[in-house]
Amino acid sequence: MTKTIPVDQWADEKLKDPAFKAAYDALEDEFALAAALIRARADADMTQEQVAEAMGTTQTVVARLESGKTMPSTRTLERFAKATGTRLCISFKPIPARQ
After folding, report:
1. What is the rounded distance in angstroms from the CA atom of residue 53 to the CA atom of residue 48?
2. Which of 16, 47, 66, 83 has the fewest CB atoms within 10 Å, counting from its CB?
3. What is the CATH class of 11-83?
């Protein structure tokens, strides 16, 4: 029998490992971008297939974008924004000082 634990509990345990936490923190921008893409698609009430069709690409490409495993070009992000009826906004924020 396979033991299951809630994902939050699993994450809390994993984040106690300094090496895991460092690797996770290094991917913060990718996770944030993936979440923003998924949110834009969900807010537009569209499937990945519908976004792909509007972008002139495939559902697999949209899935890869939303996975956070790739860093898309600005042009691709603009196409995604247009497909979901949103506007791409890029900003720069200061990095907090390490303590």
Report:
1. 9
2. 16
3. mainly alpha
